Amino acid sequence: MINLLGGAYPWVKAAHVVFVIFWMAGLFMLPRYLVYHQEGLGDRSEEARWIDREAKLRRIILTPAMAVVWVLGLLLAANAGLFDAVPGLGWLHAKLLLVVLLTGYHGWAVGYGRRLARGVATLSAKRLRAINEVPALAAILIVVLAVVRPF
């Protein structure tokens, strides 16, 4: 399915980049929200505010953006020949692996937020802050793979 998108390719690619930005913004915000939510445990009104903020972030930005990123990304991958065994797409395989891992991180963060909503905190604040850096590292690697295409 090489050149599946024809003249729509630049528009699909632009939309993909826009929704990646939205998704990454949400992935940068949610872990920080989790830190503040965890710090507010024990204060009912504070907990309620963080539960509401996290739910809105998930519902309005994070999950819809991730879904669009996946749909458009798979269209772009098909356009590049990923499903037709086109050689020279090692960079794309690596990028997709990182996106799968980032999707897992997204799921973990959503799950941890739900645990916090039940009052269960299993990570130290320091560890939670460190985990907050995962999306930035993933973004750096994904951009390098997509732009440089090292293999």
Describe this structure in words.
With 151 residues, this protein is an all-alpha fold. The chain has one domain (6-148). 78% of the residues lie in helices and 0% in strands. Helix 1 (9-39) runs antiparallel to helix 2 (44-80), helix 1 (9-39) packs antiparallel against helix 4 and helix 2 runs antiparallel to helix 3 (90-117). The relative contact order is 0.16.
Task: Provide a concise account of the structure shown.
By secondary structure, this protein is mainly alpha-helical.
The helix count comes to 5
Mean pLDDT: 95
Helix and strand composition category: mainly alpha
The biggest sheet amounts to:
none
* Coarse morphology: elongated
SSE blueprint:
Elements: H1 9-39, H2 44-80, H3 90-117, H4 125-131, H5 134-148
Helix pairs in contact: 1-2, 1-3, 1-4, 2-3, 3-5
Task: Provide tags for this entry.
151 residues, single chain, elongated, mainly alpha
